[in-house]
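Consider the following assembly input.
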Amino acid sequence: MAAACGVAFIGAGFISYSHNLSVRAYGARLVAMASQTRRTAEHRARIFGAEPYTFDALEAMLTRSDVDVVFVLSPNALHARHATAAIAAGKHIVIEKPMALTVADAEGIVAAAQRHGVGIGYAENQVFSPVMVRARELVAEGAVGRVRRVVGFCGHAGPPTGTWFWDPKWAGGGAQFDMGSHTVAASLDLVGWPEVKAIERAKLLDHPSGVDGRAEATLIAANGIELDVTSSFVETGESMWYEIHGEAGVLRATFSPAPFAQDLTLTPKGGAPRGIDIPHRGEVMQVSGYLRSMGYLDQVSHFLECFDSGRTPRPSGADGVRVVRILLGIYLAAGRGRGVTLDEIPADRLPLELWKSLPRS
Amino acid sequence: MTGSSSEVLRVGIVGCGLATQSLHLPALQSLAASYRITAVTDLSEAVAAAVAARSGARAIADVFRLVEDPEVDVVVICTPDAFHLDHALAACEARRRAVLVEKPMSLNARMGRALAEAAASTGVPVLVNYPHVYDYATQRVRQVWGAPGNLTSGEFHCFLGNNDDYIADVIQMIRPPGPPEPWVGMTAQLDVASAATEVLGIAAGVTSVVGYGIVLGLTIHDIPVLRRFAGDQLSVAHARFRPGPNPLDIAGFGVDAVLETPSGTLILQSEFSPLKRTDWGFRIRRPDLQAEAHFPTTFAPAAPSRCSVWGAQAGATLEQRYTDFYETGFRRVWRHLYDVVVHGAAAETPARDAVRDLEIVEAIATVASKRRM
């Protein structure tokens, strides 16, 4: 697909830069991009060398014959509408996290893709980062023995003030929803995506914006692994890391600040910590290597290769649904003030409704 | 000269940052017979209101409303580089009588061509503000030099030191209230990275993206000046990025380039100097003539440039010096623009010609990025 592949973006925000550079690195071409306002669409499209469209005239962009893949990069609340429109136009989609605001919407996207025979790549960039890929390999090889627990932390000082990330209507939720989609997906990925049945406990901290500013949750996977995930918009600096605790040792993977703080350290039980080499470490002073360190480069090439060959991407649309279900379970557990099983989640409820509006029980 | 005409052009200022406050405002206010500032806009409404109060203009919140305002004849674009194209295009579409856009005209030559095409199709004169093209020292040397060409040797340098004390104390810079938003700076870096990798390729060094930004923002001052002496048959024989202590920071970052012409060789050096002293100027030679120019410090509304010219005459060497000329390129570009709008003079730095400057930016950065640092 490389040479012939045409890409369109729905959304022209901050993340569009990483995707544009990665599309260019793959050899595909960004031909069109859309934003809420004509001014923003034109501004970014001029810089990227693409044709601008607006959200209220998406049809014209989605019916372009030179567009093969549509990247859904719009605010969270618009993902479902934009994804289903692109799928209905017969395009493969890459969809940013979190996939949708409700379980029903996320499932609707996957069902639509099945009906139209198109692929979904769920854009969890962290799992494509060489440090995380290597960590996953080590765990699978038994470097820490049988895994008991994953501890994940993703935090920074919060998205820019005044942007949709802080607005419940557009973001759906705060630190747990937007940042926590990383923490949950990457923690699961490290241990092979075990099925999560229950949220044992969850604690969300209020932020004046109305969304949650910080969140802690403990998930219980079917194979007995406990996942302790913390996600935050109220840190002084950016920090993202994971620890995999097994019977034979602990593996710590530092993802961010990427690329320079990235690190992989294995501490065998009763032994001394030792650093593990991270592939492609020597390339991070290249733009492509810098993008690769954050996962964006290999994410886009994996998705575009899968669409070309007909393989199912990993993470897939189904993985995106699983993450949304877990995130909503965390809001429900925080709202109930107790542990919940994922089959308790009302399919059509929004994260903040589950947290704040349902009667406590 | 402007004094012979009574028409006063109404200026709308888009972006009220450092260049506007320290250079365009004093220049325009000193040309009150030719210009009146009628409208200003800025991302920060507080800054726009304060600059409006200083200039007697109206503050207009939306840049796209300002460029269409019936009380605006001429628009000057002083926004961050990545927005120059959007705002200049809007001024062309609004059929203003002229647009002055700060250098660089845009982020790469492709984007520059879009503006040149809009200027051509709308008939709106779009001038790029290169203060050193308009500086008295450059203009005086050009009068002696004549047509471009025959250059055997040239040395252009820009070692730019900071000027914070001057900016704080003398112009009483109005800054947006509150702490700077870090994401704005990150977005600006990503804009440069997007434009630079379009030219250099995605495997380019991260340092090359910083270097591209230096060539685009700093070296570009010298490029249109050297073209006016060396001509346009230029090739980049050598170029090098010299990162500073932190390779991702512009502080101490230098760019060197060697350009060849059919008759000679030019050396071009630019650097964000850690020293406060700014050293900015050029030396050029051809068989019968030698000249040098020294430009004033940056962001000074009235500071002298100087130049010297040596020529062979009657078996001896004639030396001429020109000093103490306090009119900056910023004031002179506004006088020139008045001649373009009111008297139909040919623009000195039209957008279509500035595309060539951006092509040279790309050529220098391409050669430098391929060299191992």
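Chain A has a mean pLDDT of 96. Ask yourself how this observation constrains the way the partners meet.
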